[in-house]
Design goal:
The protein has 841 residues and is α+β, with helices and mostly antiparallel strands. The chain is built from 17 helices and 48 strands. Strands 27-28-29-30-39-36-35-32-33 form a 9-stranded antiparallel β-sheet. A 6-stranded antiparallel β-sheet has the order 26-25-31-38-37-34, with no helix packed on it. A 5-stranded mixed β-sheet has the order 5-6-8-7-12.
Amino acid sequence: MNIVMHLTANVLWLSSVLVGVDPGDWTLYIANDNCPDYTWGYTEEQTRQAFADIVRSHLDEMNRTDSLEPASQDRYNMAVTQEAICFVERYPEREAELVRRIKEGRVFVSPFLCNSLWAFHSTECAIRTLYPARRLEQKWGIAIDVAEHIEEPSLPWGMSPILAGAGVRWLSVPFYNYDSTFSSLKNPPLFLYEGPDGSKLRVILDPWASNKASYFQGAVILRKPESIIEEWLPHYSGLGEVYPLQSILASGTHSDISPNSGSQTQGFAEAIVKYNTDGGSHPKLVNATLPQFCEVVDRVQARKPFLPTLRGCFGHSWDLWPVSLAKCAADMREAERAYLAAETLLAVAGSGRPEVYDATRADRERAEWCWAMLSDHAWNGTDERNKRHNAELRRKWNEELNDAAAKLRTQGWGAMGLTPDTYALTVFNSLSFPRSGLVCLTTTQETVDVASDGRPVESQIVREGGERVLCFVAADVPAFSFRRFELRPAGATVIRDHGVSATPRGLESPYYRLAIDQQTGAVSSLVHKSTGRELCSSGPHKLCQTVFFDGKDHTIGNARVEVIAQGPVLARVRVAGSVEGIAVTNDITVYAELDQVDFDLRVDKPVTVNEQRLCHVFPVVQDGAELRIETTAAVIRPEPQPKGDLLPGADTRRFAVQGFVDASSPQDVGVTIAPLDAFALRMDLGPLAFEALGNDQNYREVIQDQDGVKMFRFRYVLRGYTGGCDNAKTIAWSRSVATPFLCARGGIPDDRLAIPTIQLDPSRAIATCLKPADGDGSGGSVLRLWETTGESGPIRIGLRGFRIAIRTDLLERNQEQLPLMDGGIDVKVNPHGFCSVRLLP
């Protein structure tokens, strides 16, 4: 420090003493870490090597600084578990050394596998991103109760119950205020974050530090140490009662990971040593881990609680970037559903047969890794080559996840003893509640008779993609259970009126009457027949209208409508048109037995790079209606508090949708829309506009041509209802329409159908998964629940064929054995909260 800096510091110190602040009483915790963007700027091979090398450099620096006083000894914070995995992968001979340093408190491991887009991934995927860390906890005996999530300027409300339920006490979010609204944040730097379920998580989300120095605050300070007294101390000492600490966290040093990151390590360590040995009264710097700072706050909080409690959502921002690879994003949602269904089949088929679970463990762990990595936020890139590399990785991970689902399905059916039979069909319901749903399978027959338990089932042959597809409704299939159907060549056809009809002007079912605008091909009227109410609201656009924007809005003109299916099961019309060279077809379907309207849009879009978006608009929001969106682990009202659930500074324009969007009014008919493939809801483009594909979210950095993809598919399912929004029913319905039955040609032996059963009241909760146990080797299967009604009473789970039920946390750590009484167990779950139960046959 030169003489001018000393004089400046001393003058400021003297002025601060006048108000009772002595710089020497303060401590700054400099937390070494890197921003671990997986493949941001580099290939996967380069990134994994860079992760390994930065850890190696810090272990070397720890050895070099062991003799120094504790504050100056080198420490390192792994912001993602991937860093530990890559280090052991590349330097296996140093694994024991790494574990020793973690246990000494010199290395911290955050439990996030990757830098995920945490509103883009689903609830179950968010939990699975923590599983690799849990496995390291078991293997190495390390703690994973503190978490760091670097860079992304968002914090969805549902992350609080997920992290708290996984045993995480503290979360740090040093963010980069880019493509976000976080400059308007009003929150204090430290607070208790209360989830929708009442769970609480201690959070460091510091607007001042992050807006000043992003996620490399420690490096900024070490480059300009005079700023500690000039800026940092005045700010924190001036916060008053909201910050009764004399300790400051400066998060981050290395910035973005690169092959050269390890070369920075010694420089940071020496800068801390130099500052601490300079003369004069100044704060002490600690080469720190994040848990060290958290422990300081915990001690102060224990003496005199000061952390305010915040409830609500910090919004979504970067979570919409995957719309630039819309097909890949849609494939991820489909692959996830396929994997969860296959995993459930395997859990049921392998109950009491641990060898079935053991034989699939490696495949399941790899599938979970691919699934989690699809949520990593590098859906963009530094240059054209890097963007293409990241797109290729996401295609590869999707393929692996899909392949794993297919393999698990085969193994699950095999474990059930499926015997191939052309004239038999077995249907499996992978969800936790009884339901009815459409079954579709290809056939070479012109007509087919379908029966169940000797009773005929209405069926219909439709043409799809040049193939004959047999369609029928499997009614009331029990939860986690099977239903057998017999298939035979049809006899004489009997034509009966089932209340479904189609003309080029519209469709009708027992539930809806639908009219199609002949110019735009959109739905001009949708009448809810039981009430006679019109579900379409007035406005510039019609229902399920395609709107393309490239500087101005364009809509389809001169649409063509034809009837393509009509029978006892369903009626369907195909609407075809084009807009700005983009060909769009929309198959609209209504059903005789299912209360829903399906929209299946195929988009053939020329490859272009100008800034643009293509939206599907659903103007169903009536005056006075309240919007709700299922987001990751929380259903939110997408408006600022107090009317909605958004905290000050949250982005009000855009949201990543998981299961549904709902517009409800106690005095009118409500409408729920389940987007099966699209996920990006734009609140700034009309009442309900789904951006199905585009490049306008971070246009500068994302792939601008959809990586050359031309063909896209986007499906939406809609229903109307009365009586106001029922959260439990809405969640269950959205999962039902998004998750087809698993079907296999053949039969299952009767004795295998007598499997253990699980009964769960869908008016109280749903299962987010039923899976082979991971955990600590206790075995069995794990049922994960989401309380969806908001009630505090215990949830009754009926069980048959299970001897033991153990409550676990979300990462399958055993907590307490639950008494099995009267054919079931009672589980206490926070309203809107989550829990897991280990079941042993």
